[in-house]
Structure to design on (532 residues):
């Protein structure tokens, strides 16, 4: 059976894979275990945490110095603040996992022995009895710990903490808590509405490790496994595209690989060489299909704390008060994997696919409510008549902007989102929009790519649009905008036309003053400037 790119659950032997242990600083992890430390491994969902923990469990058990057990406690999430139920469920899960590793019923017998112990000490007592009766120290990995909430989560953390001083003879030598967020960042709301921080409930944590994304080298290695297995080759130009689209996010890397080698049925012919246009189409299909991983991220956009962080990025706001955004909110969105923060650079969306998903999702209902059809703006050769399209958008914007923008949850980014909804409705007839935006950029760059034939290597129309909010003198905004539009056209290469769109949000101005368009030249290139 041919191996495959895995997009569902932990890695298996029949999937292309990067050695999970190579993604950990194994020396650091082993040192923490030898030093009897309790620590955290966290990373966004679908990053490979579970695969790493399972690989570490198997490695430790092969080495033979410890009894290593992995347990996923997500099942307790449904019981929420029912502490008795969650603690009992956790002990049941641990008993089954220990039984599987030890090939003995002792863990089940010890579980039965603690059933009458109170809910706030049952877990502590169970782990103490296990540690006392087993011949080697225990290394326990608890996955999805942050799926638990409220009183139940606090009880589990405090019971682990209460046995800490008795390690390793009467409590696990090392416990690794695994989840999306660092335990220090938990804000746990109890049933009485008191708030407990994770740091106070679990103040024995020695270190937090964050599992990173794939590197460029690891992406290449993963895809080369497919080439070695099947003989199917990837054009070299595919790899920068995959990196730009994913920034190494493991699920996305595997999803593109699966899409382009298997879901695109014509590419199941392994003599078919994978070229860049196929990668574009694979991205588009993944976005449009909204797989579970993407659906989870989309759902997060509705949360107020996520909106506070994402909205200034979408609107390219230069005057938002960053001090009003709590650091905890920023860290939460980082931990979700939605944004990235690099030293010396402003916050930005984590990767190219998420940059596409977010504005599309925020304008989905708007797109479906627009009556424009792609055919209205297509010339005989299939290309987009952008001047006709923008003239229609101006009229639409004039008549509908106030009422439509009020519908957006992210109203500060409303003008840009409304235009992107209008454009997305058109390119859904066959085309792509590449988007560049972020804090401090003071603009949104859009590159529309419209294939003119069905052939992967056929001609493509390329149009650059630069979106800016007017702040200050119009002449100064145009001058700066022309330079920025030309720079993006130059970077994009082989561009057919460029447009600079300036949104004037001065309420005192009439629409007659705000709606206009006229041609300019910059560095010998024609650029049409539009007032909205």
């Amino acid at each position: 059976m041919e191996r495959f790119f895995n997009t569902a659950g932990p890695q298996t032997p029949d999937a292309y894979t990067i050695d999970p242990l190579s993604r950990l600083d194994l020396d650091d992890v082993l040192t923490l275990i030898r030093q009897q430390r309790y620590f955290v491994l966290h990373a966004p969902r679908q990053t490979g945490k579970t695969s790493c923990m399972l690989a570490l469990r198997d490695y430790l058990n092969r080495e033979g110095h410890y009894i290593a057990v992995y347990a996923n406690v997500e099942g307790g999430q449904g019981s929420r603040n029912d502490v008795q139920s969650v603690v009992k469920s956790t002990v049941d899960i641990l008993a089954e996992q220990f039984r599987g590793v030890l090939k003995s019923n002792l863990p089940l017998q010890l579980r039965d022995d603690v059933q009458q112990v109170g809910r706030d000490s049952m877990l502590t007592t169970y782990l103490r009895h296990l540690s006392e009766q087993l011949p080697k120290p225990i290394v326990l990995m608890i996955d999805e710990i942050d799926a638990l909430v409220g009183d139940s989560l606090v009880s589990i953390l405090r019971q682990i903490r209460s046995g800490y001083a008795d390690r390793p003879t009467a409590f696990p030598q090392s416990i690794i808590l695994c989840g999306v967020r660092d335990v220090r960042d938990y804000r746990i709301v109890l049933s009485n509405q008191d708030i407990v921080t994770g740091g106070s409930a679990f103040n024995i944590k020695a270190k937090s490790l964050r599992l990173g994304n794939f590197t460029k080298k690891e992406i290449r290695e993963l895809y080369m496994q497919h080439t070695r297995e099947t003989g199917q080759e990837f054009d070299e130009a595919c790899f920068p595209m995959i990196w730009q689209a994913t920034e190494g996010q493991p699920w996305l890397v595997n999803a593109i690989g699966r899409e382009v080698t298997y879901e695109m049925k014509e590419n199941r012919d392994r003599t078919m060489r994978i070229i860049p246009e196929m990668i574009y189409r694979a991205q588009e299909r993944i976005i449009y299909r909204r797989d579970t991983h993407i659906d989870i991220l989309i759902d997060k956009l509705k949360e107020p704390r996520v909106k506070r962080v994402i909205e200034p990025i979408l609107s390219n706001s230069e005057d938002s008060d960053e001090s009003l955004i709590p650091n905890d909110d920023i860290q939460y969105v980082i931990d979700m994997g939605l944004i990235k923060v690099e030293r010396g650079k402003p916050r930005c969306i984590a990767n190219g696919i998420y940059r596409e998903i977010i504005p599309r999702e925020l304008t989905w209902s708007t797109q479906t409510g627009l009556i424009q059809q792609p055919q209205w703006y297509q010339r005989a050769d299939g290309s987009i008549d952008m001047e006709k399209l923008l003239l229609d958008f101006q009229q639409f914007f004039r008549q509908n902007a106030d009422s439509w923008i009020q519908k957006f949850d992210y109203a500060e980014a409303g003008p840009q989102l409304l235009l992107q909804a209008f454009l997305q409705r058109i390119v859904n007839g066959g085309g792509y929009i590449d988007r560049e935006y972020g804090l401090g950029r003071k603009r949104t760059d859009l590159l529309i790519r419209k294939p003119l034939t069905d052939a992967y290597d056929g001609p493509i129309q390329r149009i650059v649009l630069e979106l800016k909010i007017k702040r200050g003198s119009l002449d100064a905004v145009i001058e700066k905008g022309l330079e920025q539009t030309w720079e993006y056209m130059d970077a994009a290469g082989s561009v057919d036309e460029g447009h600079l769109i300036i949104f004037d949000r001065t309420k005192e101005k009439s629409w007659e003053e705000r709606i206009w368009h006229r041609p300019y030249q910059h560095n010998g290139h024609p650029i049409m400037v539009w007032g909205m």
Summary: The longest strand covers residues 460-469.
